[in-house]
Specification:
alpha/beta, five-stranded parallel sheet, 20 helices, 45% helix
Length: 498
């Protein structure tokens, strides 16, 4: 793959110039797109999702990528996404919001697996970022051979455009200049801080104290912790990155070998690290870069917030998909809150609680000893038996809604002027508005009286299912039940992961 030197944009205008170089503006809105194949959509600020989207785009071959939400604050990140994909003819951008839910309604998990396998029908498949993860994991889950393809998708060898010069030699030299040497076993510790500066899932940031705790957890195992990212912990540790023992990936995107060459070059740097040195593991809060470390071939521990804690960030299910396919990708979840974890602030301590830190330490020990098969860390989202029962309850709720829809359709098809379906055994209603109100009330009662506060979080993650059913009931009333069955199937698949 070829890359070229492009100075980092210093403002919106420069960022838009880069975006235009690697993508085209969407004219006419989503309804104007006539394309039979995959149509990926990704938010302009969602750079962490671009690795999955770019790989899925490569895997299925015939697809478009639409970057939505481009404005002054997101143009630079949108440009990074477009540049990483590097196919101007297939990448579009828009300042508008994401497509309405209806666009995605015809693309279920089975369709995504068909796309991953190279089997699809001549029709559009609209795919969110999470669908891209499904395609990547469906492809990688077929065999160990296909899993070995993943580093090539995300971090192929990179050449300077017009010269044919590979970056690998310069990257190797750069790694040596930053403390890497043979004979040592390294664990990369990724620092995330975007939540407290941009406001995107601040509870998933590492925190300065939390970062030092992770560094110490690695050192306690007799391994060399490698700090990665913006925050330099060495002054706190009484030494500098120039010390012989201080291998680091601090601001690695500014290193001579990859500076201003884009994220493809940066991903290649991590792959060369894997090939030339003993990177035995990586650890970090859930993020796109943490996932990238796994994709380039490093056993990785992704730290998330347990969904029962009540501050879960959207997308917590996606790491579970990766874990189900990649033996050396593991998930551990935090059960203890951290002070001011939801606040937006430039600097944040983020100390981990003693219980959580002990779990992280144990999981790191297992991972770095090569114990990568058939274990789930304590506090894993799927290591709580109550989740099984709750998922079964959600499944029954969905099936009840299917029954309601069938009864409503039967009344409508019979020509009855006053339909009286009886959802969940309650008394009938006289019109559709009352029916909608009853279902809303039932749902709210189910949350407030039948679930714990932690279960409310889980239920909120599944709210899309109930919303779809309410929409169908009020808008058309006699919709086919195929989509409902698809939604139930999706829920069954989530439950089957446990």
């Amino acid at each position: 793959m070829e890359v070229e030197f492009i100075a980092r944009p210093r403002g919106e205008r420069e960022a838009m110039n880069v975006l235009e170089q690697f993508s085209q503006k969407l004219a006419g809105g989503y309804a104007s797109i006539e394309f039979n194949g995959g149509i990926f959509t990704i938010g302009a600020s969602h750079t962490g999702d671009m690795y999955d989207v770019a790989m899925a785009h490569t895997i299925i071959g015939h697809s478009l990528v639409i970057i939505w939400g481009v404005d002054a604050s997101t143009a630079a990140r949108a440009a990074e996404i477009a540049r990483f994909i590097d196919e101007r003819e297939t990448v579009l951008w828009t300042s508008g919001p994401p497509p309405a839910d209806g666009y995605y309604a015809d693309t279920g998990p089975a369709d995504l697996r068909e796309l991953a396998a190279g089997r699809s029908k001549a029709r559009p498949y609209w795919i969110r970022e999470g669908g891209a993860t499904t395609i990547v994991t469906a492809y990688a889950g077929v065999s160990a051979e296909q899993r070995r393809d993943v580093p090539g998708f995300v971090a192929p060898e990179v050449f300077v455009k017009g010269t044919g010069t590979s970056l690998d030699k310069g990257i190797h030299e750069d790694l040596g200049a930053h403390g890497f040497t043979g004979g040592k076993r390294y664990v990369i510790v990724n620092y995330r801080q975007s939540g407290h500066t941009s406001g995107t899932a601040p509870a998933l940031d590492t925190g300065e104290e939390g970062f030092l705790q992770l560094m110490d957890a690695v050192a306690r195992l007799g391994l060399v912790p490698v700090p990665m990212g913006e925050y330099d912990p060495y002054p706190r540790l009484g030494r500098t990155p120039k010390d012989e023992v201080s291998a680091n990936l601090l601001r690695y995107w500014t290193w001579k070998s990859v500076d201003s060459l884009g994220r493809r070059a940066e991903a290649r740097l991590l792959r060369v690290l894997v090939e030339k040195f003993a990177a035995v593991a990586a650890v970090g809060m859930r993020s796109g870069v943490t996932d990238l470390l796994a994709y380039v071939g490093i056993p990785t521990l992704s730290i998330d917030i347990h969904p029962r804690r009540g501050v879960v960030a959207k997308g917590w299910q996606r790491p579970l998909k990766r874990e189900s396919v990649f033996p050396a990708y593991k998930v551990v979840s935090l059960m203890q809150g951290r002070q001011r974890e939801r606040d937006k602030q430039e600097r944040w301590a983020g100390d981990f609680g003693a219980q959580d830190l002990a779990v992280i330490q144990k999981a790191l020990d297992l991972l770095t000893r090569g114990e990568t098969m058939d274990w789930k860390a304590p506090q894993h989202p799927q290591d709580v038996t109550a989740i099984d029962a709750h998922a079964a309850g959600l499944l029954k709720e969905a099936e009840d809604r299917v029954g309601t829809l069938r009864r409503a359709a039967a009344y409508r098809s019979s020509g009855a002027a006053d339909p009286t379906p009886k959802p969940s055994g309650k008394s009938g209603t006289s019109n559709m508005e009352d029916l909608k109100r009853m279902i809303d009330q039932e749902k709210q009662l189910g949350v407030s009286t039948g679930q714990t506060a932690a279960n409310e979080v889980w239920l909120r993650d599944q709210r899309e299912l109930a919303d779809h059913l309410l929409d169908w009931l009020t808008d058309t009333f006699v919709q086919q039940t195929t989509e409902v069955h698809n939604a139930i199937r999706d829920l069954r698949e989530l439950h089957a992961l446990t």
